Amino acid sequence: KAGVTQTPRYLIKTRGQQVTLSCSPISGHRSVSWYQQTPGQGLQFLFEYFSETQRNKGNFPGRFSGRQFSNSRSEMNVSTLELGDSALYLCASSLVGGGNQPQHFGDGTRLSIL
Amino acid sequence: AQSVSQHNHHVILSEAASLELGCNYSYGGTVNLFWYVQYPGQHLQLLLKYFSGDPLVKGIKGFEAEFIKSKFSFNLRKPSVQWSDTAEYFCAVNSGANNLFFGTGTRLTVIP
Fold first, then answer.
1. Given CB 3.0 to 4.6 Å as the disulfide criterion, which of A25, A48, A98, B24 pairs with A29?
2. For residue B84, which phi and psi values (nearest 5 degrees)?
3. Which of residues 16-75 of A touch B (CB under 8 A)?
4. Is residue A34 within 8 Å of A91, Cβ to Cβ?
5. Cα distance from B97 to chain A (closest Cα, Å)?
6. What CA–CA distances, in Å, run from B71 to A14, A57, B6, B76, B78?
């Protein structure tokens, strides 16, 4: 069974630009969550999508948004990029929603802002 | 808001030594607890999880963790570490929703 696939693996952008990251969950998984990992703040929850609806949201500004498609694939968008947005962005999927389902993580997209 | 504390930032052990990594969380309600491991160059992988029932849970690769509700702790243990256990270990918690709160991680280095 293929794991969680994130594309692209690496991205370099400049301040003020916007970026879209993609995540394909494990086949059959309907919940997709996004996390930001930085050396200073560690792993922080961004949001979760289930059945094309955002169900949970972390404490990030509105520049961070996402969506989920009918095939459960998800995209995350960051607008007006800032230097502090440089991070590893991780996607995780689980079968259904609910916290007692283990989440399976992808390799991440490393975003660098110049 | 929930938070997770991992007391050890970097632990260095010799092979065959015993391991215990501390994890404390702050949340008064029902929680689900996880330990994830990240081997060098690999993605986060689930080591073990606790949802309910027996507070001593066993995971992959000989790891186990004990949930002590009165201490808000979920410490990870392994009786005898191997060089291949060198990795970063993350404790995480949620309270029924799919948003995990992670600790800052503990880097384990095992010396052959």
1. A25
2. -70, -5
3. 31, 33, 35, 42-45, 48, 50, 55-56, 58
4. yes
5. 4
6. 46, 28, 14, 14, 20
The C-alpha R_g of chain A, in whole angstroms, comes to: 13
Please provide the DSSP assignment of B57-92 as one string.
Answer: EE-GGG-EEEEEGGGTEEEEEESS--GGG-EEEEEE
Could you list the pLDDT tens digit for every one of the 112 residues in chain B? Answer: 678 999 899 999 999 999 999 999 998 788 899 999 999 989 999 999 999 999 999 999 999 999 999 999 999 999 999 999 999 999 999 887 778 999 999 999 999 9
Residue B8: CA atoms inside 13 Å, Cβ hemisphere, count? 19
Q: Which residues, 6 or more positions from A19, have their beta carbon under 8 angstroms from its beta carbon?
A: A11, A13, A77, A78, A81, A111
Closest CA to B28 of B70, B58, B64, B56: B70
How many other C-beta atoms are found inside a 10 Å radius of the C-beta of residue B100?
24
